[in-house]
Amino acid sequence: MSIQIHVKVNGVNYNHDVEPRLLLVHYLRDVLRLTGTHVGCDTSSCGACTIHINGKATKSCTMLAVQAEGCDITTIEGLANNGELHPLQEGFKESHGLQCGFCTPGMIMTSADLLQHNDQPTEEEIRVALEGNFCRCTGYHNIVKSVQYAADKIHAAQKNKKEAVV
Ligand code: FES
Ligand code: FES
C-alpha cells in the first residue's frame, strides 16, 4: 500500500506515492535525490539529517515522509540564495568549520534555526543549540567560530538595513 503526499521542498511542490514506512530522510535522499541531508546514526542522535520543517530545525530521520504531508521543507540545498552562499555556509568555509564535511549540513541547518531567533548568540548558546549535532572531526571550536562569523554578518546586515530606513 502507498499513500500520496504533497510537500514543498526548497520552493518546489512535489506529489509522490510513498510507502507509509518510508522515513522523511530517505524520501529526501532517495526519491528527491537531495543527498546533502545525511544519515549518520540509527538512534536519532547525530543530527546529520537536520532540515527545516515549516521553518523549524528537525531531524528528518525521526519522521515518516507521510507525516510531512502539506509541509514546507528546506534542506541544505535550499539555503543559498540566487547562487550566493548563506552566511553560515560562508562562515564554515572562512572559519574552517568543516573537515570531512559529513556533519556540516546538519550543523548549518540547526544553526540557521538558532540565528533566525537570536542573531547575536553567546558561545554558550551556540554550544547548547548544537548539542544534538555530532561532529567526529573538528572538536567543535571552529564550528562555534563559524556560527559566530555568520551571526556577526547577519547582525551587521540587519543594522545596515535599519539605518538605511531611518
Ligand atoms: S541520522 Fe538523524 S539523528 Fe542521526
Ligand atoms: S566535519 Fe567531519 S564529522 Fe564533522
TrEMBL record:
Q: Which organism is it from?
A: Panacibacter ginsenosidivorans
Any idea what this protein is called?
A: (2Fe-2S)-binding protein
Any Pfam family hit: Fer2_2
Q: Where are the transmembrane segments?
A: none
Taxonomy, superkingdom: Bacteria
* InterPro entries per UniProt: 2Fe-2S-bd, 2Fe-2S-bd_dom_sf, 2Fe-2S_ferredoxin-like_sf, 2Fe-2S_ferredoxin-type, Beta-grasp_dom_sf, Diverse_Oxidoreductases
Residue span, 2Fe-2S ferredoxin-type domain: 3-79
* Entry GO MF terms: 2 iron, 2 sulfur cluster binding; metal ion binding; oxidoreductase activity
Tell me which UniProt keywords the record has, alphabetically: 2Fe-2S, Iron, Iron-sulfur, Metal-binding, Oxidoreductase
